[in-house]
Design brief:
The structure is a homodimer. The first copy, chain A, is an alpha+beta fold. Chain A is about 45% helix and about 15% strand. Chain A contains 12 helices and 10 strands. Chain A has helices at about 5-20, 25-35, 40-50, 70-80, 85-100, 105-120, 170-185, 195-205, 210-225, 250-260, 260-270, 320-340, and strands at about 55, 65, 120-125, 135-145, 145-155, 160-165, 230-235, 275-280, 290-300, 305-315. In chain A, strands 7-3-10-9-8 form a 5-stranded antiparallel sheet, sandwiched between helices. In chain A, strands 4-5-6 form a 3-stranded antiparallel sheet. In chain A, strands 1-2 form a two-stranded antiparallel sheet. In chain A, strand 9 and strand 10 (about 305-315) form a beta hairpin. In chain A, helix 1 crosses helix 3 (about 40-50) and helix 2 (about 25-35) crosses helix 3. The longest helix of chain A is centred in the C-terminal third of the chain and has 21 residues, at about 320-340. Chain A starts with a helix and ends with a helix. The interface between A and B is medium-sized, with 34 and 34 residues. The first copy, chain A, binds a DNA duplex (30 and 30 nucleotides) through helix 2 and helix 3.
Chain lengths: ~350, ~350
DNA sequence: GACTGGCACTCGCTACAGTCGAGTGCCAGG
DNA sequence: CCTGGCACTCGACTGTAGCGAGTGCCAGTC
């Protein structure tokens, strides 16, 4: 039952070879390419045990072995050696991200960078509004009954929304409104604003109350409810690389899943303090992604986390490399945000 | 050389059948499914002529015929009968777009709607900044040396950008700056702003000149140069529908092309007054899309055009249906923008 | 002169048999 | 516990044969 060190080494070798060659790996090839110090026959015995335990399987009798999801899991948890990034990669990351001019640009560059380095599909969540604080609220008069509300978060993210007032409003009153809402809300974390917005109505001067009421509705929608989360995606073309061997023949389910923002958020958005997360094949909750693996992590300035990013690829992926890249990119982006 | 009416009818029948069945169509099947009033042998003679002229071809000897790009072109230009949208489709369009709350939402909904109705890849360009007018410019003080510049266009599009000032600035001066730039620029079409921005520097009061100089640089970047065009994409999963028969086996080149914003812009952005455009296979300038067709059109409130939208699919697509849908959606969106 | 029925021909597709070889499981011996 | 040897399995590949959809051509008919 217990797997001794050699069996684990065999499993590791199988995973590494299979990931590299994309073909079932046999006992003979294994001893040739790795220094296992035993004969093919011995390896075969080990393989039989590994198969019994569910870590590897045979596509057909008389074919080599292929890791199962469970095998990859064990590999990731206990067997993979950390693969440090090459200096060239580090430089690429720095250079690529250095030129960013604003938040949108940072996210765009990050997602392309990730896709390029890992050669897989990359997903980056914009800094979540819920996790940011209000830096400034602006009211821009468009006409006497229309205002443009602009919310600026401390992460640099900006949301805007048109407000249709119930009655015409004076310029001075707009200034008044702006002052009031800023006094009340600046510096507050967005997820904490609802009660304060509520209070705004009650505390406002009578003749502004109707305006404040509609305004606060829109505020609530903008701050909390409405497409609160945005997401950037890149590298879908990489899905078509593995010649349809990955993803059991059809990209369709995967592409479909990637079109749903909700799904993407689930993939990378559930950020716990646990920094980095790997979900392998069946471990994914989304049915369409049962043939895929996801490596995701949170990122943000310093220790706080403002969003998630990650990479999606075939279960047969280079886990050590991908993990190292995702971790490195997330750290760089975090530093970039901290400088701001 | 000249193709008489029956030969054209045969070509039309071939296109329609091939689009429907995805299989080469033979003379016998043709006379069975269409009322051509002649025998298979006659149809075969017509086919021979059509093939000689390059409108159809045989994948292999002893197979049915398949339209060539040139055949589709003729079909689109002269043979396709307009296919009016079903009331259900019209209602779907209206319902789907009615719920939009702001410009971003309109674009998002439009692109998903197009993808869903045509069952293909949809592309929608955000209203081009170059073609909009400045509605309002806002300067929000972040710190004494930092301003947030917000540009609001009359199409509802909003761009923002951080401005790093060379020296600290007083609150009153910010108000001054804001007033000046608004006086000068509001109502101007964005593509016309550069000379005016230049003039801003020269006309500003001496002690504000350094601030105005950096500000105008950023203004120029924001108004004209920087990722001036944004694009929304949906329906990529539809590419994987045709079971790899379309796109000659690999989705990769197509997916790659779709990742390049520049390419997408080329596809749908070159908007001439000519309302609707169909590019078939080889007619596409982008090599990766030689196996695809694109149906695109401009849209905007009333007669003005503020951006493009379109649909991409296999050359073997339902042209009449796609054309009708794209045209209808563009018109609805135009009306929606006009109401604003 | 245009259309049609008939006929020989082409050629991709499928099924089937046979061979090859990678890879396995098992066993006896060190 | 490991190893070398051996029989066995089964997928991949090859070659052959038959089938049938579809064609091109030609002689005959209206």
């Amino acid at each position: 039952m217990g797997l001794d060190d050699r069996k684990l080494a065999v499993l590791r070798a199988i995973v590494e070879d299979y990931v590299a060659t994309q073909e079932p790996v046999g006992s003979k090839a294994l001893v040739e390419r790795h220094q296992l110090g035993v004969s093919p026959a011995t390896v075969r015995n080990d393989m039989a045990v590994l198969e019994e335990e569910g870590y590897i399987r045979q596509p057909h009798t008389s074919a080599g072995r292929v890791p199962t999801d469970r095998g990859y899991r064990l590999f990731v948890d206990r067997l993979s050696r950390v693969k440090p990034l090459s200096p060239a990669e580090r430089r690429a990351i720095e250079r690529f991200l250095a030129g960013a001019v604003d938040l949108d640009d940072v996210v765009h560059r990050t997602v392309r960078l990730l896709a390029q380095l890992t050669r897989q599909v990359a997903v980056v969540q914009y800094p979540s509004l819920a996790r940011s604080r209000v830096r400034h609220l602006e009211l821009v008069p468009i006409s006497t009954t229309r205002l443009m509300l602009v919310v600026i978060a401390d992460t640099g993210r900006v949301e805007q929304r048109l407000v249709e007032l119930p009655a015409p409003i004076l310029a001075d009153d707009v200034i008044d409104l702006r002052r009031t809402i800023n006094e009340k809300l600046v510096g507050i974390q967005l997820s904490e604003t609802p009660p304060l917005v509520q209070a705004l109505i009650e505390e406002s001067v009578p003749h502004l109350r109707p305006a404040m009421t509609t305004l606060s509705t829109v505020l609530l929608e903008t701050l909390v409810e409405r497409h609160e989360e945005r997401i950037a995606l890149a590298g879908t073309a990489n899905l078509a690389r593995g010649g349809l061997l990955d993803f059991q023949g059809s990209l369709r389910p995967v592409l479909e899943a990637l079109e749903e923002e909700v799904v993407l958020l689930k993939l990378i958005g559930e950020v716990e303090p646990s920094t980095l997360r790997v979900r392998i094949g069946d471990e994914n909750e989304i049915d369409n992604l049962r043939a895929a693996s996801v490596v995701s992590t949170g990122y943000g300035p310093g220790a706080t986390i403002v969003g998630g990013m990650g990479v999606l690829g075939p279960t047969r992926m280079d886990y050590p490399g991908t993990i190292a890249t995702v971790r490195a990119v997330a750290r760089y982006v975090g530093e970039l945000l901290a400088q701001n």
